[in-house]
Specification:
- This protein is an alpha/beta fold.
- The chain contains ten helices and 16 strands.
- An eight-stranded parallel barrel has the order 9-10-11-12-13-14-15-16, surrounded by six helices. Strands 1, 2, 5, 6 and 7 form a five-stranded mixed β-sheet that branches. Strands 4-3-8 form a three-stranded antiparallel β-sheet, with no helix packed on it.
């Protein structure tokens, strides 16, 4: 049974009480995610959630995760990776959720406390009713570990076609089509080609921050530069589309959250040839920004796929990249 909530409340310097919770996103061999329904008599009852529970005194988040999942759904966690950490203020309480992605476990999940459990395709998650604090978790559960940034400044269709095929064959399923020097008409032509290709492969393609272009090409969404992010006053696309943004500071992350951006790319973590003038954050500053973010964030800048695990332990969804992803995943 869950411990007394009074034992798991942390008092902040301002005197506010924060309920510490660990939760797990279990993924099966088909890529489905396990969700459970909260009992009607509990806070946020009759809503779906990711299984987990409150931390006991002197218990780490990972320890609580393993204990709660054994007690709630009868599984042993074999491997857990940090997915996202978020704080949410309800009218009657504040909650901080440490969420872990679980790709390896033993046992067959079942509701030991009588709660319904079910496996759900990630694309179906938005159609279930979750507590408000779980919404960023739903987004994180739907995102991959890698976000490929495809530079289209050459303007050559054949180059674009070749790179798209390489990324698709390597299993990349989230791509941004970036071009800073192309004329708008040429970028539209390449975007139309890339959007059609990506739809046929089940890839989510994000375009430069022009809402009408995303709508007319049927792309999955938009990626906003930091200056574009600060210029918008409302979310540029409906909730069925994806909106991402580049952020370099806490202020830009707060604006992204206020705008309803789905995820952010934060960097550069290290020096990068594409932005030699930018001051690198380093891992510690990146981690501090990720810890305060209320949306999933990707680490960007001088990173390669081998850095993915480090990025995730630092609070990232994964890594975003241009050269590193293309060269290592799709040589």
């Amino acid at each position: 049974m869950p411990p007394d909530p009074a034992l798991t409340l942390e008092q902040t310097p301002a005197g506010e009480m924060v309920l510490e919770v660990a939760a797990g996103v279990l993924v099966d061999g088909q890529g489905r995610v396990l969700i459970a329904k909260r009992p009607a008599h509990l806070h946020q009852g009759d809503l779906w959630e990711f299984p987990g529970g409150k931390l006991e005194p002197d218990e780490t988040s990972e320890q609580a995760l393993r204990r709660e999942l054994k007690e709630e759904i009868d599984i042993e966690v074999l491997k857990a990776t940090p997915l996202i950490s978020i704080r949410h203020d309800y009218p009657d309480r504040q909650v901080r959720l440490s969420v872990w992605k679980i790709g390896e476990f033993s046992g067959c999940p079942r509701g030991l406390q009588g709660q319904p459990v079910r496996w759900v395709a990630t694309g179906e998650l938005p159609y279930f009713d979750f507590p408000a604090a779980n919404r960023p978790i739903v987004t994180a559960a739907r995102l991959p570990d890698h976000y490929a940034i495809l530079d289209a400044d050459s303007g050559e269709t054949e180059v674009l076609r070749n790179r798209l095929h390489r990324l698709a064959d390597a299993g990349l399923r989230l791509i941004r089509l970036r071009a800073s020097r192309l004329a708008p008409d040429r970028y539209r032509e390449l975007a139309e080609y890339a959007a059609e290709f990506c739809r046929s492969k089940g890839i989510r393609l994000l375009l430069n921050g022009v809402p009408e272009l995303a709508r007319s090409t049927g792309a999955a969404g938009l990626h906003l530069r930091s200056d574009e992010l600060m210029a918008f006053t409302t979310r540029p696309l409906d909730p069925a589309s994806w909106v991402a943004a580049s952020c370099h500071s806490a202020a830009e992350l707060r604006k992204a959250e206020k705008l309803g951006v789905d995820f952010a790319v934060v960097g550069p973590v290290f020096e990068t040839p594409s932005h030699p003038e930018a001051e690198p954050l380093g891992w510690d500053r990146f981690e501090a920004l990720a810890e305060e973010a209320a949306i999933p964030v990707y680490a960007l800048g001088g990173l390669r796929p081998a850095d993915t695990e480090e990025a995730q332990w630092r609070g990232a969804q994964g890594i975003a990249g241009i050269r590193g992803i293309l060269e290592d995943f799709a040589p």
